[in-house]
Design a protein that fits this description.
Blueprint: E1 2-9, E2 15-17, H1 27-47, E3 59-63, E4 67-72, E5 75-79, H2 94-117, E6 123-132, H3 134-137, E7 148-158, H4 163-176, H5 178-184
Antiparallel strand pairs: 1-2, 1-6, 3-4, 4-5, 6-7
Helix pairs in contact: 2-4, 2-5
Length: 197
């Protein structure tokens, strides 16, 4: 299973996306946004560590054969499965969205830490590929985990800085990327089931 995104920006700062529309932004405007966000968060956290605590939420409703309609903030999107997994294939499946979340979080954190470290990113393309054994999903073998057994991320980056600088950037990004952390560390989950009449 492979999910790929290509987010590129040329020297004029125009952007294009293979997975939907994006907002074009000049590199200097991006730098200004990153600086302002960093300063604002530093001030909030300095005032109280409690200000660093965020809560994200999403909700979903079952639709179609096995699809879901998910609402997260002001955004709504559909999640489905391909026909071999009983779906109508009208949207990416949950695992593809998870890989997409990893990719997009990596892109955000690459931008953030390149800016903080004074590195230049001229273009940034990230792809992710994951292996899933459906024996775990369908209960055919309880020794097989139902989730991904391995994930491979490829980051293609161009810029004027040294190869060593971008390798160090990668280590910094992976140490601070929230979704990378979700993929690599256990996260406690509390589930409540309520029967409604």
């Amino acid at each position: 299973m492979t999910v790929t995104t290509a987010t590129t920006a040329d020297s004029a700062g125009t952007a294009d996306s293979t997975a939907g529309s994006t907002v074009a932004i000049r590199p200097e405007d991006r730098a200004e946004r990153l600086t302002a966000a960093g300063q604002a968060w530093n001030e909030r956290i300095a005032a109280s560590a409690k200000n660093a605590q965020l809560n994200f939420s999403a909700k979903g409703s079952a639709q179609g054969s096995v699809s879901s309609v998910i609402t997260a903030g002001k955004h709504t999107f559909t999640v489905d499965e391909p026909a071999p997994l009983a779906g109508d294939d009208v949207a990416p499946n949950p695992v593809e969205y998870a890989l997409g979340a990893l990719i997009s979080c990596q892109i955000v954190v690459y931008r953030l830490y390149a800016h903080n470290l004074g590195l230049t990113i001229e273009s940034l393309d990230v792809s992710a590929e994951g292996d899933l054994d459906v024996r775990g999903l369908f209960g055919a073998d309880d020794s097989v985990r139902p989730g991904l057994s391995a994930v491979r991320v490829a980051v293609d980056i161009t810029g004027p800085d040294s190869d060593d600088a971008y390798q160090e950037l990668q280590k910094t990004v992976d140490a601070h990327c929230p979704v990378f952390d979700i993929f690599t560390n256990p996260t406690p989950i509390d589930v409540t089931v309520t029967k409604k009449n």
